[in-house]
TrEMBL record:
<dbReference type="GO" id="GO:0034982">
    <property type="term" value="P:mitochondrial protein processing"/>
</dbReference>
<keyword id="KW-0472">Membrane</keyword>
<dbReference type="InterPro" id="IPR051156">
    <property type="entry name" value="Mito/Outer_Membr_Metalloprot"/>
</dbReference>
<dbReference type="Pfam" id="PF01435">
    <property type="entry name" value="Peptidase_M48"/>
</dbReference>
<dbReference type="InterPro" id="IPR001915">
    <property type="entry name" value="Peptidase_M48"/>
</dbReference>
<keyword id="KW-0479">Metal-binding</keyword>
<keyword id="KW-0812">Transmembrane</keyword>
<keyword id="KW-0645">Protease</keyword>
<protein>
    <recommendedName>
        <fullName>Metalloendopeptidase OMA1, mitochondrial</fullName>
    </recommendedName>
</protein>
<dbReference type="GO" id="GO:0006515">
    <property type="term" value="P:protein quality control for misfolded or incompletely synthesized proteins"/>
</dbReference>
<keyword id="KW-0862">Zinc</keyword>
<feature type="domain" description="Peptidase M48">
    <location>
        <begin position="5"/>
        <end position="111"/>
    </location>
</feature>
<dbReference type="GO" id="GO:0004222">
    <property type="term" value="F:metalloendopeptidase activity"/>
</dbReference>
<dbReference type="GO" id="GO:0046872">
    <property type="term" value="F:metal ion binding"/>
</dbReference>
<feature type="transmembrane region" description="Helical">
    <location>
        <begin position="54"/>
        <end position="72"/>
    </location>
</feature>
<dbReference type="GO" id="GO:0005743">
    <property type="term" value="C:mitochondrial inner membrane"/>
</dbReference>
<keyword id="KW-0378">Hydrolase</keyword>
Length: 119
């Protein structure tokens, strides 16, 4: 709580986190992960049917997970963060907090710890 300059900054962050819940981002990400697992399964089964090698199956699973994470999961996660940034500002504004404090807070945070450490 020491990093916040005022209640408005606390409200902006809480509203951001609350918007994740309101927008059901956890369910969205878990659903996407399940779908991707189902899509990866048939090629993995086919590969194992033709080349029944346990180490090759492990390697291909790892490669598939990396490719899916880089091309689908990470961009999706970034999209949910951006969505929560916007919706969070609306929620904080509706609760009569000064959302202009978000800029000051994020700039301070970026200068002190870097935004990458927060995700
Ligand atoms: Zn977030």
């Amino acid at each position: 709580m020491d990093i916040f300059a005022n209640d408005d900054q606390v409200a902006v962050i809480l509203a951001h986190e609350l918007s994740h819940v309101v927008l059901q981002h956890s369910s969205e990400i878990l659903s996407l992960a399940s779908l991707l697992d189902l899509l990866i399964l048939p090629p993995m089964i086919a590969l194992h049917a033709f080349v029944p090698n346990f180490l090759l199956a492990l390697l291909m699973q790892w490669v598939a997970n990396v490719v899916v994470s880089l091309t689908i999961k990470f961009p999706q996660r970034r999209k949910t963060e951006s969505e929560s940034d916007i919706v969070g500002l609306y929620l904080a504004a509706r609760a009569c907090f000064d959302v202009r404090e978000a800029c000051a807070f994020y700039q301070m945070l970026n200068q002190t710890v870097g935004l990458r450490d927060l995700e």
